[in-house]
Design brief:
This protein is mostly helical. It is built from 2 helices and no strands. One of its GO terms (cellular component) is nucleus. One of its GO terms (biological process) is cilium movement involved in cell motility.
């Protein structure tokens, strides 16, 4: 009778342990799901930022091609601060 009572107690402890482990497993799965969603958002954010950075680099490259070097810059006024005519400006550009 005492052996049967001992086995019954052990079965109840095992069932309690199983219930606790199932709860922890469910909590762990919830955390895993939340972390997976967060990882997805981070990866999407990185992709967006990578695209933005690429666009910014292309813009900077385009701007650098549009900037006129000082040696090729044609002033709109001469040394006496007189406005140059469009014809003279074009002649200076061709020079």
């Amino acid at each position: 009778m005492q052996v049967q009572h001992g086995l019954t107690d052990e079965v109840q402890q095992l069932e309690g342990t199983m219930t606790a482990l199932k709860q922890k497993r469910a909590q762990s799965q919830d955390v895993l799901h939340a972390l997976s969603q967060q990882l997805t958002r981070i990866e999407e954010d990185i992709a967006c930022k990578t695209s933005s950075l690429s666009l910014e680099r292309r813009s900077l490259d385009t701007r650098s091609k549009l900037i006129v070097p000082p040696e090729k810059h044609v002033p709109e006024t001469d040394t006496f601060n007189r406005t140059l005519s469009p014809v003279k400006s074009r002649q200076l550009e061709l020079a």
